[in-house]
Amino acid sequence: MKTKKRYVTIITAMISSSFLLAACGGGTTTTNAGDKSGPTAAPSATAITKANGPKLSFRLAETHPADYPTTLGDKRFAELVNQASDGRIKIDVYPASQLGEEKAVIEQVQLGAIEFTRVSTGALGGFNKQYEVFSLPYLFDNDEHQWRFLESEQGTKLLDSLEASRMKGLAYYSSGARHFYSKKPVKSITDLKGLKIRVIQNKVNIDLMNALGANATPMPYGDVFNALQTGIIDAAENNYPSYFSSNHFQQAKHLILDQHQRVPEVLLISKVAWDKLSAEDKALIKKAALDSVKTQKEEWAKFEKDSETKVRAAGVTITEVSDLKSWQEAVKPVIDKYRNDYKDTLEAIEKTKK
Ligand code: GTR
Asked: In the record, which residues are listed under signal peptide (predicted)?
C-alpha cells in the first residue's frame, strides 16, 4: 500500500513538474537557441512574467520527514533561492522519500528527471568512488574537525568532484556521528560478531562490517524498520536523529555509542539542470545553498539533543564507549586498505586536526 501510494505521488509530481517546465522552456532561463519564431509566435519562456508565476520550477528530493533538520535546511535553501530570484525560481521540497529512496533518486538526478536532492555522502559513495572516503571509520575527532575539513580546499575539491558523476555539489550539511543499534544487547565490540547489520550500500561499509566480524546487509533506508521488525536483520547503524525519527529505536533497543563514522550530507543539483542555468542563477543558487547551512546546523544541534532525550525516555539501553581504542584498532585494516586511494583527502583530514 505504502509503495503504491508513493508511486502515485511520484507520477503526479513528475507530471505537474514537467508541465511547469514545459511552460518554462524546459527549465532554462535562456531563449531556445534554435528559436526561429516570428513576432506572431506564442510567447517564449523568457516572456513569461512574474505575474504568471515562477519561470523555473524544480523539485528537491529528501529522504527524511518534514521536521527533520536536513529537510529544514532544504526548505531554507528553497526560500533563499525564491527570495534572491525575486520569485522567478521555485523549488518544491518533497520529504519522506516521496520521490524514491536515495539510490533511485540519485539515478534520476543523474538523468535530470529530478533536479535537486539532499543525500548522504554514504549513498554518493556508490556512484562516485571519492565519496566512499567518508565511510572510513574514525576519520574525524568530532563535528568541528569534520567541518574544518569540509570547508578546506580539499573539502571543496571533493564537492566539486561530483561533476564527474553528473551532479553538482552545492553545500555540505551536518549529520553527526553514527552508532550501532541492535535487537540483541550490544555492550562491546565483540557483541557485533555474527550480527546481520544493515548498511548504506558502498564497498567501504562492507569491508567495515567484515572487519568487525559482522555481516553487511545493504538495503534502502526506508526498508530498515520492517527488516528489523521481521528479523531479516539484527542491527543497523545511524546517528541519533535518524535512529529516532525512523522509529528504529522501537525495534532495536540496544544502542552503543561507538561513533564509528561521521558521514556528512550533501545538497546537490543535477548537472543536466545546472548546465541550463544562466551564470546569474548559478551564483544565486550556490550562495543560497551555502547560506542555508547555518539553519541546517542550528536545527541539527537541537534535533540531535532532542532525539537523544526521547530515545532515553523510551527506555533504550545505551552503552557509552569510554575508550574507543579497541574499536579503532579493529577497523584499522579497512583504513590501511584504502589509504592509497584517498591519499590527498586523508592527508587533508589529518592536517585539519587540532
Ligand atoms: C541518514 C542520512 C540519510 C540516509 C540514512 C541511511 O543519516 O541522513 O540520508 O542516508 O542515514 O542510513 O540510509
From this structure: 1-22
